[in-house]
Amino acid sequence: MLLLEERLISLGEEVKKGNMTWKEVAQVLNQEFGENLSRDAVRKRFYIRDRHASEGENGMNTEISGAGEYETRYDNGMVEAQKVVEYSKEIFGDKRKMLEYLGYNPDEWEFVFLTTSMWNQHTKEQTTKQLYAVKFKIKPIMKTLSLEHALESAKEVFAREIKPYKFKKEKKKDLDEDMLIEIPAIELHLGKYAESLEVGEDYGTEIAKERFHTVLDSALSLQEIVGADRAVVMIGNDFFNSDTVGNTTTKGTQQYNDIRWKSLFITGLELYKEFFVTLREKFNHIDVRLCQGNHDMMSSFYLYMALSAFFAKDDIVKFEENYREYQCYRFGDNAIFFGHGDANLKRIVASIPAEFYREWGESKYRELHLGHLHSEVAVDEKSGMITRRIGSPTAPDAWHYSERFVGAVPKHQMFVWHATQGLKAIEYVTFERNKEKVLTLKK
Fold first, then answer.
1. 26 or 438, which is more confident?
2. Model-level pTM?
């Protein structure tokens, strides 16, 4: 008889071919196995199993050594297993020793639950060997580092692993020192997976990469018109869709990605390396600033540090050693404040003149640029500062769709500033939605 997981994968392939729906799959599984699974439950379970299978880790119970022993590794990092061990007074009651005895590092794992039951084995000598079946679930220990420790660790690793590239400095002539192009952090949600059958449009890593390159091409075209001497580029703002090995946000909200966490980071790093290597040929100065999001607070920080190590010896691309969540960039009479904007908007707006009182007092034109909402919003708070929400190139996923966060046009904005005349223009980069797939059931 087929295991439920094997039957699920078989039926899921039929859904991918357009021969069934997830509701029909749930009905078949419930009838054959006596379960009470919902449409969403079988869909989510399939994609977790399917993703593991494509990587050689199908997530099913794997026999290790003898009857009754198995180990299952899940996408969120947890391990569920059963092992047969000999009785020992020393290990029972001591969870650290038990973890070592079971073959796991107690500094890296902790028990979620642990049960034991007697397992008697008869030997050839007709004696009984007293064994125990240990059934348990463990999870990786999440170690919390202070920003200072994280910064020092990142600097140490990147200094050892990433060798700065030596760029040639060639001064570009005929560029206007009074002009600045601002490229806010691109809220790409790299790695996010969405299906048109569920939300009306497809989204994945390859689509995200195409849209990132569209932003780069648009920036180059804009520079051909403006001829600015300087650009400021922000990095972060939910550039990555998830922040952990288990594909969750920084605070632990589960996300559904089409790429594993190591490949996700490497892909993002390569995209931005190409971005700056290409862009530096058109400007004399590129200032880079950090703008962490709520999805990728750690990953965006590590991306920023890796890039700063790569461009450490470049005279054009310069990374500021400022890692606060809200920052200010000064250009002539302009003060550009920025952050992700997932906190209360009124408190954010009220806090800017208090935190940046010097920059506020010395500037004439002030704007606050935020992300987070995936849609463009411009608010004049009548406080001497205009607040704008930057759009996002991403598509809605299943959660956003079910919560009705739909309708926003996928876009990204870039801003053209004059040193003494303030904001001169806003350049919009828009993206075509992938056409919705129509499911035709075969007769």
1. 26
2. 0.62
